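INFO  loader      accepted 1 record
INFO  loader      residues=154
INFO  predictor   begin
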Amino acid sequence: MEFSLRVNGEARTVDVEPDTPLLWVLRDELGFKGVKFGCGVAACGACTVHMDGTATRSCIFPVEAAEDIEITTIEGLADEGMFTDVQQAWIDEQVPQCGYCQSGMVMAVSALLDENPSPTDQDINDAITNVCRCGSYPRIRKAIRKVISERGAA
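INFO  predictor   done
INFO  writer      dumping tokens
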């Protein structure tokens, strides 16, 4: 079946089975390799994208439910090639080790900070449930705090 999607601000058409997970459509059909497969059961968060601004795990989201939703991948997060403040904090704080989970982590953190510009530690714990096998959580928390501090100063 044909599905019309809006990904990173552009209209796209794909011809896939209705129950195909959005993850595979984004990666295999549309070439967005920043969306990663981790677990396939929405537990790890490596596949996190924004759907109408909400962090969503794309590995279990069927493409048939994605029409009429603005989908943003890590490739579409930056504005005109300039890193967002979250992406820049990731670089400044040297967050990634292997980097596999980081695009999903950045997407989850970006959605949280857009929704709640001053989250508590508990808010962060509740919202950011992505898994990092390298254990870069202290640097992730430091990067989040950097963004919150810089946004508060602006």
